[in-house]
Amino acid sequence: MAVTALLDLHLKADRVQDGPAVLDAILRDTRAFEGSEGIEVLVDVADPAHLTVVEHWTSMERDEAYRAWRATPEGASGLGEVLAAPPVLTRYETGSTL
């Protein structure tokens, strides 16, 4: 079943200007990862340091493979350098009928 992952991010106040460039570099690799069906970045209109990354994956297995890759030296990103707090990940099954 397809999965939508929401990654809630809070940037350091002094790094808000760096956020787009850092995310752009990270998301190039994310978009190219097998199973990625699209990504968008939402910026909180009341707080530009608060971002939500919306990721669409073909399956939970592909999303988990991506997250495992990000935990390796090869997949590591510089995201932590600009974050004020750890990211919060929430995943949803998509395409299901209730």
TrEMBL record:
Domain ABM as annotated: residue spans: 8-74
| Record-given protein name | Quinol monooxygenase YgiN
What Pfam families does the annotation carry? ABM
Q: Which domain of life is it from?
A: Bacteria
Q: Which GO terms describe its molecular function?
A: monooxygenase activity
Species for this entry: Amnibacterium kyonggiense
Q: Write the record's keywords in alphabetical order, separated by commas.
A: Monooxygenase, Oxidoreductase
The record's SUPFAM superfamilies line, in alphabetical order, gives: Dimeric alpha+beta barrel
